[in-house]
Amino acid sequence: MRHRSLASAASASAPPPQMPPLLLVLFHFHWRHHAARRLSSTTACLHPPPLQHPGASASLLLKLQDHIARGHLSRARHLFDQIPSPDVRTYNDLIRAYSSSPTAAADGLHLYRRMLRHRVAPNNYTFPFTLKACSALADLHCGRAIHRHAIHAGLHADLFVSTALLDMYVKCACLPDAAHIFATMPARDLVAWNAMLAGYAHHGMYHHALAHFHSMQMQAQARLRPNASTLVALLPLLAQQGALAQGTSVHAYCIRACLHRNRKLTDGVLLGTALLDMYAKCGSLVYARRVFDAMPTRNEVTWSALIGGFVLCSRMTQAFLLFKGMLAQGLCFLSPTSIASALRACAALDDLRMGEQLHALLAKSGVHADLTAGNSLLSMYAKAGLIDQAIALFDEMAVKDTVSYSALVSGNVQNGRAEEAFLVFKKMQACNVEPDAATMVSLIPACSHLAALQHGRCSHGSVIIRGLASQTSICNALIDMYAKCGRIDLSRQVFNMMPSRDIVSWNTMIAGYGIHGLGKEATALFLEMNNQGFPPDGVTFICLLSACSHSGLVMEGKHWFHVMGRRYGLTPRMEHYICMVDLLSRGGFLDEAYEFIQSMPLRADVRVWVALLGACRVYKNIDLGKRVSRMIQELGPEGTGNFVLLSNIYSAAGRFDEAAEVRIIQKVQGFNKSPGCSWIEINGSLHAFVGGDQSHPQSPEIYRELDNILVGIKKLGYQPDTSFVLQDLEEEEKEKALIYHSEKLAIAYGILSLSEDKTIFVTKNLRVCGDCHTVIKHISLVRRRAIIVRDANRFHHFKNGQCSCGDFW
DNA sequence: CTAGGGTTAG
């Protein structure tokens, strides 16, 4: 407090220092320049006064100044070259002009080199300009050279020079060097503090940045009151951390210090934008909107920050309205960034038509080549199911980065094209584009989808090598992958070892137990989740209920359903009712399930009835099945599965005419049944089979093996259950159609390829049929093999003639 | 100052 400068002395009657009024702030602003000038001029005295220009007329020099002032750099250069031996000031003027335009920065450095060649000594004005050019070019090598020159000239401690050095190291991503400069500067002004803060902030060094800001506040001098630049660097950090309380107090400070109405117009826009962005990122859209409305001037960044904020908070419809409002103001605010946000809204709203209009807008406004917007367009098409469009767009893109590739990887996975996803990943590596966490989070589900454990383990290894293995989202994907690849033990290992878990981690692990029929373990984990104070969400209960359902834990399932509303205050959604119907009907309580549907507060949609229909099929309850299928027809079947189920019901009842009719309706309406397909991974490569498939190179052996097995198990009393065949065929023909179901072929191939101690793991895209289920049980007995089959629904562990699902498949 | 790709349930 003792070294109060003239600024604070002048404002002795000012309010306490934490509440600086406008005058104080502005005054400090001027004062900084004076202080800097003073400092510079003392060091400048060490150097000889500027030379005269022999041969250069005063009018030439004036003209040169004029060109520089008007930004006519080439004309200025023309004049400059006519001066036989320019002095340091003339060099400085032109270098300064070059360095303030990023495209001319290289010319500025050339001129500097020429200056040295001509033995003109640079002074305290030269270095900041040349360093600025280095910053613009991110030319660290040159920056370090100039640093040495400055030391040589004894000017490195000058306030302007050292601040420029600091800034150069920040822009060249050398934070330790920047911090060293900062620490050793004999004097630091607000600009230096701000530069250092911005450096930490831009490099995501949250703790360093906050510590820096705190020590900045600890500086007693009133001249270190944060200005707009300080807060513009600080606010994104608070936003990222969701620190609403701190952000709000920054806002309050801005108002007290009148920074939001800064005389520099850009400061006001930047600060307002940073503030509204902070509010939006902290989930406080009302305040974001209020800041926005109060801003006297806005730019395109302001608009896209607000629109992006609404998208971030999943307020897609409102985001869209804002976007339209922006367009209504004219096209001056339109930017690729806001289009990218609007495209995200389209993708989430499933509004393909609007997405296509945005595509057109993007093309028209000439920002088609923008990488960000292109990537979100690509993703929008993929999410809408138009994977071919997405691929075409990807091929058209002149520049592709990690995000483009990741979007295509996940687009393929979302459209059920796991193998293509791997191909894209390979291509990405061939093109030397580095995968990051998001890429891997997209790729790992492809392994889950294929149940390709070897691929999954490779991905796990790759994630470890890249140092991503401790990230929560990566671990979540790994838990899911191991569970779906039949290694629930490894899922649990990943779960146990991960440093921090989120709700997805718990849900995924519970779901993993569920598909393995480990209802007790699922319940235990749910209880542990409670003990650790993790509040379950709606998805948790879907996972838990379906786990009970797959394990035949009907009573427990009912219990949790009631607890969900009563203890956790969660309102059941349609998905929960589906789980309950599934639970009851799978357990054989068909009538109770029917009554349950009648008593639902929501109007049951098709999916609810389909859950019941599946059980009618299994329990061969044709009466109820008829009623249910009538409901389904009324509601209109969605997707293919329902047609197949319905047709199956009729087939099983021997009513093939009606079964055929359903098939015809299906064809007419354009739903194609996806063919049953099974696959097995042997030594890291996948072998896929469809029913009656003979395309595999080892087909003859496979069929021989399968026939041998069938002869063997028929002796044990196995009778093919021909009710599972869909077409209307003669009994003998039906039997043949059954024999060569894809899962049987894959298992036969597994027996041939794997030694006896190895578990055979087969995956099927649809559900395993009842006949195959019986046959596989027999195989596990006569061939003494452990067999795991993952179907569209769950896992079946076959061993010694038994199945883990207790035949409630 | 803004912004693109990502994990769970059926």
From TrEMBL:
Domain DYW as annotated: residue spans: 717-809
GO biological process: RNA modification
One term of GO molecular function: RNA binding
Top-level taxonomic group: Eukaryota
InterPro entries listed in its UniProt record: DYW_dom, E2_motif, E_motif, PPR_At4g14850-like_plant, PPR_rpt, TPR-like_helical_dom_sf
Positions of PPR repeats: 87-122, 189-219, 299-333, 370-400, 401-435, 471-501, 502-536
Keywords, comma-separated and alphabetical: Repeat, Transit peptide
Protein's UniProt name: DYW domain-containing protein
